Amino acid sequence: MFIRKAPWRPLVVYKFTVPHPSVSTSDVEIALFKNSYLNGIPVDDPDRLNAEAFLAKNEITVKKVQDATIHAEASLMGLGCDLQKGNNYNEDIKEVFNADLIPIGVSKKCCWCCAELDRMLKAKSPIRGPKYSLPSTHATIFPWVAPTGLSVDVLSRMRDHLREIFDRAARDPHNIPSSNRTSPTSAPSELKDDTRDKWTTSEAVAEAEAAAEAASLVENYT
Question: Residue 68 and residue 215: Cα distance in Å, rounded?
Answer without folding.
Answer: 12
